[in-house]
């Protein structure tokens, strides 16, 4: 069962330094089990921006129902 999350995140890549805070919806294959799973959301966002996961910092998130 997939789960959707509304996210606010920062991109730390040099290209985004001028305007680096964004928001959007991310869909995961399964719901997050614990807070350590934020790496899954960061990985999806990084792939969408063609960046390394270390270039994405999740600020906040909440599950959409």
Describe the secondary structure blueprint for this structure.
Elements: E1 3-11, E2 21-28, H1 38-48, E3 56-64
Antiparallel strand pairs: 1-2, 1-3
Characterization of the model:
This protein is of the alpha+beta class. It has a single domain, classed as Ubiquitin-like (UB roll), CATH 3.10.20. Helices cover 17% and strands 40% of the residues. The protein has one helix and three strands. Strands 2-1-3 form a three-stranded antiparallel sheet, covered by helices on one side. The radius of gyration is 11 Å and the shape is elongated. The mean pLDDT is 85.
Please report which band the strand proportion falls in: under 5%, 5-15%, 15-25%, 25-35%, 35-45% or over 45%: 35-45%
Structural class: alpha+beta
Count of spatially separate domains: 1
How much helical structure, as a percent, in the residues?
10-25%
Gap between N and C termini: 13 Å
**What is the correct CATH architecture?**
Roll
Reported for the largest beta sheet, the result is: 3 strands, antiparallel
Give the strand line-up of the largest sheet.
2-1-3
Q: What order do the SSEs take from the amino end to the carboxyl end, as H and E?
A: EEHE
Task: Supply the CATH class.
Answer: Alpha Beta
- The overall average pLDDT, rounded, is 85
CATH fold-type name: Ubiquitin-like (UB roll)
Overall form? elongated
Summed up, the helix count is 1
| Unreliable runs | none
Radius of gyration: 11 Å
Number of strands: 3
